[in-house]
Amino acid sequence: xxYLKSFDLLSDETEYQIICAKRNxxxxxxxxxxxxxxxxxxxxxxxxxxxxxxxxxxxxxVLQIIASKLQASKRSSVVFGDLFDQYVxxxxxxxxxxxxxxxxxxxxxxxxxYLLDVRAINSGVHRRKExxxxxxxxxxxxxxxxYTTLGQYEALKNKVDANRLTESKYIRSRMxxxxxxxxxxxxxxxxFWVTEIEENSLYLIDEPENSLSAQNQIKLKQxxxxxxxxxxxxxxxxxxxxxxxxxxxxxxYDLDETPVLPKRWTELKNVRLYYDFFMEKREEFxxxx
Length: 289
Fold this sequence. Notes:
Elements: E1 4-8, H1 12-21, E2 42-44, E3 48-52, H2 59-69, E4 73-74, H3 82-90, E5 92-95, E6 102-106, H4 108-140, H5 153-164, H6 167-175, H7 185-196, E7 201-206, H8 214-230, E8 234-239, H9 242-245, E9 251-254, E10 262-263, H10 269-280, H11 282-288
Parallel strand pairs: 3-8, 3-9, 4-6, 6-7, 7-8
Antiparallel strand pairs: 1-2, 1-5, 9-10
Helix pairs in contact: 2-3, 4-5, 4-6, 4-7, 7-8
């Protein structure tokens, strides 16, 4: 599904006008003087479009500009300043007739925050389990005759449960739904994407491969392909993962080159480095076959 058909960044002439009109309070020209130098002004989009490039190539900046122009929802708010706002206000875009139900910007930091939340929940569950374990042993070793008043009724019930239940059953009966998440960071990160992506929506995503093993990156690749094909989603993804770059029929802009043009994923420098490395080690693989 295509919701966003095209987006126009600013020409060198328009950027020059903004620079001439800018006030001296601006310490940097960001995001000016990035894309004219790359001869990048007009982008068109497919159901899956990739922005490929190394650090400092501008791929995340493109996402932020598009997200701001489309007023995409996001988990955390970042203030870039007046120049950024002026830049965004001058951008133009074209949407398809059918509008998405949601437009979301998802940054790599959002995944890390999610993983920290999972870790915090797990830590709290661990602490609660330790407390209940100590409580169980205390009630188990205390005579029932100690609980003789009405005010000790709850303690007496705990004592009865400690006598009739094993320690694990005693703990589970008091934990309710607060169970421990056993997934690894990579599995939790993959679960983040599976639960975050909904149908009929446009997603702008920054480096989703972070925290994912090669195996889970391949799973995410398949999930994105299926979401675009069967669930009417459109994706614009900034990445340098060869697994994600190999998504079927994805349009890939190479921001490491000037001018920026669409390329096949097998032509990209980062992918070629992987290919050359493994071809150099080919005999070692063949020995083990």
